[in-house]
Amino acid sequence: MNGLEISPFIAALPKVELHIHIEGTLTPALRWKLAHRNNIPLPYETYSELVDSYKVTYNHRRELNGDNGAPTFLETYFAGCQVLCTEDDFYELAMDYFRKAAEMNVRYVEPFFDIQAHTKRGVAAEAVLDGFLRAQRDGAERCDVRSNWIFCFLRDESVESGLEAYRTARPWATTKDGKGKGLFHAVGLASNEYDRPPLLFEEGFRLAKEDGLHVTMHCDVDQKDAVDHVHEAIFQVCAGQGTERIDHGLNAIDRPDLMQGLKERNIGLTLCPHAYHRRQATETLFPKIRKLWDEGVKICINSDDPTYMHNVWIDGNMMKVYEYCRFSEGDMIQLVRNAVEMSWAEDEVKQEILKELEEFAVSS
Ligand SMILES: [Zn+2]
């Protein structure tokens, strides 16, 4: 990971992850195993070719400044999804992640999941949802990593297909009528944002709000119309109430009204520094993150799609800002506090992590 070793302080720091796509944690090893188990042909003859295929830098097509025809991140991510077929596969994917999270001292996580990426291949939504539900319980019991999940509308699919996926998944939500199974407590927007602004999904946000769920959305970095999308997310969506969080949203620093809006509406940004560092120079990127922090915008540090982003996980992302933003140990602890505050965890979970952070601050 660009030559940075994870320091003992960063390794030991208790962590909260609010921006990770569960499908973006699929390791080449599990993908290889599931491909063979499910008889899904892989377009790679050897395991090392499969590993090499994860080295992608372009995010999607179309790219704003053109691309060179190389495979993109999104193509690689959805190619990975092909091997996920049965409830056990989704369970195994999530349990692999929870074990990894526990090793990194992650205490609580709000993973994103896709339904449409799987149902359109003929996989039953129940297999996806039941697999994750079982892992949610076992992850908490066996790995001590608590989780509440986030349903994503795939924004480059039709709005109608997203709404249908939401209606299908709804019995697994933490709905305010208390009848849901408690897997997910929020909705978000994922996949290719090119010409797919947040407001297109207003009906989805409305349904989710009515059910008592939270709303977050990706505003990708340097995407076409990036600042307009951030503006919609802060001021226009959810009938003008705005979103509760923004995933990425780094382009807010390009306009003072957006910085002001984030602060006034207390909308935090779930940043994933390595995802941007793949495409921006150290001296360009980290001063921007530092500026958000210095100006009092609430941010926290996350990993996005670690296996497709050079295997840089939340600890590696935290190490990057610790080093390149020149944050102190106290600042790093505050970044985790921010994540706790930005999360929608149950109060007792929040209190427990805050208390642990307090003890950690004294002992470190
Ligand atoms: Zn993301």
Automatic annotation (TrEMBL):
Record has Hydrolase as a keyword: yes
GO MF term set: adenine deaminase activity; metal ion binding
Annotated Adenosine deaminase domain residues: 14-359
GO cellular component, one term: cytosol
GO BP: adenine catabolic process; hypoxanthine salvage
Cofactor dependence: Zn(2+)
Superkingdom: Eukaryota
Keyword tags: Hydrolase, Metal-binding
Pfam families, per database record: A_deaminase
Family matches, as InterPro entries: A_deaminase_dom, Ado/ade_deaminase, Metal_Hydrolase
Keyword set includes Metal-binding: yes
The protein, known as: Adenosine deaminase domain-containing protein
Organism: Talaromyces amestolkiae
